[in-house]
């Protein structure tokens, strides 16, 4: 369905003559029926033979292997920030429910959640990079440092690198990480605050909390033994929904900060009409989102087996 030659779109290879073209057609089974073609395509997909990029001429498997960890790194740091800030603040807002403090936190979270992530990233660039000059404008690390790509996580790769000043390189990489991470984390933190707050309020209104108070337990004991655990169990299923939003926001922010992740890579592929890269890039992102969502759901069921029983009972 893409414009152009299906053989070139599938393989990323441009045959130089009819002999090469016939050889590629036979290699990729394009002279066979559609079911045979699709079976061969799936077979090559699982073997890692994903074709070549129009622009760079490099195998797409290698390019995805470089771009995907960068996106996962940015999303991971943003999620950590959202958990470290959002869960405690959400718990505090829930414990102070319907008070002036709760209203202030709730208003701030709604205000923060309403920002478009691309606008927030542009404001950060304008204020902190262009005006104040306290944070780098783009990239993962200064060009002064030559860091081999081993794991794809820049901080880990710096520690594994040789013949560089590790302390200075880590400081430089952290400065590059701050703005894109905060731009993504602000929205995720706001969502985490609201989810945790609602969960804490629901747990506090449960009958077993009233029973715990009647036994003379202190507020701290009730919170640590009963409220916190049950509230966090209720928030975990909602985290699976946030994974999709988090990765989407990370891909948008990458294009603004020239972060070499899958989002920035896909935008370049769209602009240059690199159809093989588009096909594999979208497939890789979809696979990552689906895999993370399933893993979080499995983790939810392992730590809270009652969920499965409850869900079966309601079907």
Automatic annotation (TrEMBL):
Residues 68-300 form the ABC transmembrane type-1 domain. It is found in: Cell inner membrane; Cell membrane. PROSITE patterns: ABC_TM1. The chain crosses the membrane at residues 76-95, 110-130, 173-195, 231-257, 277-299. Its main location: membrane. Gene3D superfamilies: MetI-like (1.10.3720.10). It is a multi-pass membrane protein. InterPro entries: MetI-like, MetI-like_sf. The keyword Cell membrane applies. It comes from the Bacteria. CDD domains: TM_PBP2. Pfam families: BPD_transp_1. This is ABC transporter permease. The lineage of its organism: Bacteria, Pseudomonadati, Pseudomonadota, Gammaproteobacteria, Alteromonadales.
């Amino acid at each position: 369905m893409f414009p152009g030659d299906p053989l070139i779109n599938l393989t990323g290879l441009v045959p130089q003559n009819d002999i090469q073209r016939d050889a590629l057609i036979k290699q990729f089974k394009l002279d066979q029926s559609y079911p045979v073609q699709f079976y061969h395509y799936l077979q090559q997909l699982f073997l890692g033979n994903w074709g070549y990029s129009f622009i760079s001429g490099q195998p797409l498997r290698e390019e995805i292997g470089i771009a995907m960890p960068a996106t996962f790194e940015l999303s991971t740091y943003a999620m950590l920030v959202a958990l470290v800030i959002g869960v405690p603040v959400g718990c505090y807002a829930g414990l102070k429910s319907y008070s002036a403090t709760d209203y202030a936190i709730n208003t701030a979270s709604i205000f923060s959640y309403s920002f478009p992530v691309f606008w927030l990233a542009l404001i950060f660039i304008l204020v902190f990079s262009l005006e104040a000059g306290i944070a780098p404008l783009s990239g993962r690390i200064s060009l002064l440092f030559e860091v081999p790509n081993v794991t794809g996580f820049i901080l880990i790769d710096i520690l594994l690198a040789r013949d560089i000043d590790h302390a200075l390189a880590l400081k430089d990489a952290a400065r590059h990480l701050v703005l894109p991470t905060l731009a993504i984390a602000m929205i995720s933190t706001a969502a985490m605050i609201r989810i945790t707050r609602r969960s804490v309020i629901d747990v506090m209104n449960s009958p077993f909390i009233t029973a715990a108070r009647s036994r003379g337990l202190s507020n701290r004991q009730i919170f640590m033994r009963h409220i916190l655990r049950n509230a966090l169990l209720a928030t975990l299923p909602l985290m699976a929904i946030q994974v999709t939003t988090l990765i989407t926001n990370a891909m948008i922010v990458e294009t603004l900060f020239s972060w070499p992740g899958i989002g920035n890579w896909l935008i370049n592929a769209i602009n240059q009409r690199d159809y093989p890269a588009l096909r594999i890039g979208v497939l890789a992102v979809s696979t990552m989102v689906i895999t993370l969502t399933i893993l979080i759901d499995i983790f939810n069921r392992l730590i809270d087996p009652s969920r499965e029983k409850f869900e079966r009972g309601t079907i």
